[in-house]
Design goal:
The protein is extended. The protein is α+β, with helices and mostly antiparallel strands. Helix 2 runs parallel beside helix 7 and helix 3 crosses helix 5. The protein starts with 38 loop residues before the first strand and ends in an 11-residue tail after the last strand. It folds into two domains: 43 residues, no CATH class; 186 residues, no CATH class. It has a three-stranded antiparallel sheet. It has seven helices and seven strands, in the order E-E-H-H-H-H-H-E-E-E-E-H-H-E. A hairpin with a 5-residue loop joins strand 1 and strand 2.
């Protein structure tokens, strides 16, 4: 939007001019550098209405708003940004090491895994009181019943004065959203159920809802707390200066995303698979699964949601 200068000529205040010398303002239609014509209409209250086509507005960068900045920035800049974000991730993760150790201890106290003890003698029996496991499963069952009823989790409320038309519209919105969640998004219910199990153990869990180009629909994924890393100073995701999601992805899925344009098409090197995560191993023990030696190692992707002040894009929204 362009600023319209409707002030008098800079020759003093109106009181300093003779009555006959006060100039009338003249506003004409003009073309501002927005890529299309701008129509300006004077209003009776002294204001002005500016009418133009937003779709004709040119962005200084000359690129689409959703363009991949990695394709636009020099490689030296992207390498520096990537190294800095990886360094920040390691710092954030190190700051919560005590929480991870406490979480691992809590998982061990569930008593879901049978242990063949050798101390104080071979075959000694050990007992773990199931009070924690019972509390977790009871919370999961009660929360599931309240948050995911049989007719769907979505409820609607009419704001303002109610009318038959608004009530019918609210019912249509409710039915459609429940259809999307419970029928179209096949992963919503099982991942929601899994999230409710981990919530009382870790204290926080997250749902990630986004549009998947490969599936052609919205998806809803459960994100464990150990896969979401934020700065230790953050009190919520809203005021966090960085939100980093640790994504594990197979080579096949990664290449699909690269082909779809979601990730930049780069040459991949085989992941080493040597990095161990004690917390992940403990969670797999609780679930009763074990990684096979023949399983191809997964790629670890740090999906960083940050605000960056990039040179050349300072004024691009």
């Amino acid at each position: 939007m362009a600023d319209i200068d409707k002030s008098l000529p800079n020759v003093g205040s109106p009181q300093d001019l003779p009555e006959n010398d006060i100039q009338e303002e003249v506003v004409t239609d003009e073309v501002v550098e927005t890529g299309g014509p701008v129509e300006i209409t004077d209003e009776e209250d002294g204001g002005a209405t500016i009418d133009f086509d937003p779709s004709q507005t040119n962005i200084d960068a000359g690129e689409d708003h959703f363009a991949n900045l990695n394709e636009l920035l020099p490689e030296d800049d992207t390498d520096a940004i990537g190294n800095q974000l990886q360094s920040d991730y390691m710092e954030y993760k190190l700051s919560r090491a005590e929480w991870e150790r406490t979480y691992i201890t809590g998982l061990e106290l569930l008593g879901f895994k049978y242990e063949n003890r050798t101390q104080p003698f071979q075959g000694a029996s050990g007992a773990t009181h199931p009070v924690l496991a019972e509390a977790v499963t009871q919370f999961q069952a009660l929360a599931y019943k309240e948050l995911l009823p049989a007719d769907g989790p979505v409820r609607t409320q009419v704001m303002g004065t109610s009318s038959p038309q608004k009530e019918q519209q609210a019912q249509r919105v409710k039915n459609f959203m429940n259809y999307q969640l419970m029928d179209q998004m096949s992963e919503y219910e099982p991942e929601f159920d899994q999230m409710l199990f981990y919530l009382p153990l870790s204290g926080s869990t997250f749902k990630k809802v986004y549009y998947d180009d490969l599936l052609g629909r919205a998806v809803s994924k459960f994100i464990p707390a150990d896969d979401l890393v934020v700065p230790y100073t953050a009190t919520s995701l809203d005021d966090a200066e960085a939100v980093i999601h640790v994504v594990k992805m197979s080579e096949n899925d990664l290449r699909k995303q690269m082909y779809a344009g979601f990730y930049s098409d780069i040459e991949l090197t085989k992941p080493t698979g040597t990095v161990t995560n004690e917390l992940k191993e403990k969670e797999r023990e609780i679930e009763g699964v074990q990684k096979s030696q023949k399983t191809d190692p997964l790629y670890t992707i740090l999906e960083c949601h940050v605000n960056l002040d990039l040179e050349g894009f300072e004024d691009v929204g």
